[in-house]
Amino acid sequence: MSSTQISDELWQRQDPAAARLPRWARRWLSALAALLVVFALPVAMHAGAFEPQVRATDRGWNGMFIESAGGTDSAIFGGAIATDVSGTTAIVNAGSSTVRVLSITVAGDGFRFDHATVGNTTVDGETVRPGGQLLTPAAPATLTAGAALDVTLFLTITDCHAVPAVQQFATIRIDSWRGIQTVRVALPTVRHLQGGWEVTTPDDPQGISSLHYLADAVCGIGMDPG
User: Which of 73, 85, 91 minimizes the C-alpha distance to 172?
Assistant: First the structure.
């Protein structure tokens, strides 16, 4: 078997840049890559790639009257004990990373938002008490990927007729690797059902916002006699 050897003189004559793209072509490709990033980023943001994936769940809803002493009673018609009410629903982290829920608020006509709690119990030292933990930026709730969290909004109804019947939203401030962001989460839609409620869908012609239901319950409006 024979082999061919290349002389040192021939190696020295080789042009190391011969296999490279011309400088103008490299610059053109760099500019093209930059343009692709510029155009792709808004698309990804519009698709929610960089938004907190926190949303409502289908775990239902619960409305309560709040007594002045702190006790509760189900928000059904004929049983109003105060204009202070609460509505409990659940949110879920549908994303792939942990987020911290800093605050949850809701705004609108006919009611005044007071505070929000998370969970069903409060840890007081070594004692576990019923009732959620007050949610504040100083005491946020951690929501791991795929986890759900019960949220209770406490309100005072100021004008029963002014609370909108259309679907309402809660505003949630969230801290994650993306920084602090806000997301709007739809509150449940319900319908009157024999003095109580039934969770339904926003396109139900008989459906109303759960906050509107609470206002109706306070003033005894729209009770279904059936």
Answer: 91
C-alpha 24: how far from chain center: 48
- For residue 99, the cross-strand partners are 143
What token pair was written down for 103? 């605050």
Per-domain residue ranges for the chain?
A: 20-50, 54-219
pLDDT, one tens digit for every residue, the chain (226 residues): 555 565 556 545 555 555 566 776 667 667 666 655 555 445 444 444 567 788 888 878 999 998 877 778 888 877 777 899 999 999 999 988 999 999 999 999 999 999 999 987 666 666 656 678 999 999 999 999 999 999 999 999 999 999 999 999 999 999 998 899 999 999 999 998 877 889 999 899 999 999 999 999 998 887 654 4
Count of Cβ atoms closer than 10 Å to residue 55 Cβ: 15
Give residue 221's Cα distance to chain centre: 30
CA distance linking residue 205 with residue 99, whole number of Å:
36
3-state secondary structure of 143: strand
Question: Residue 67, Cα to own-chain centre: how many angstroms?
Answer: 29
CB 100 within 8 A of CB 110: no
Residue in this structure with the two tokens 């019947």, named with its chain if needed = 165
Instruction: Find the helix or strand (DSSP H, E) in which 219 lies.
Output: helix 210-219
Largest CA distance in the chain: 105
The residue among 162, 38, 164, 57 whose CA lies nearest residue 110 is 162
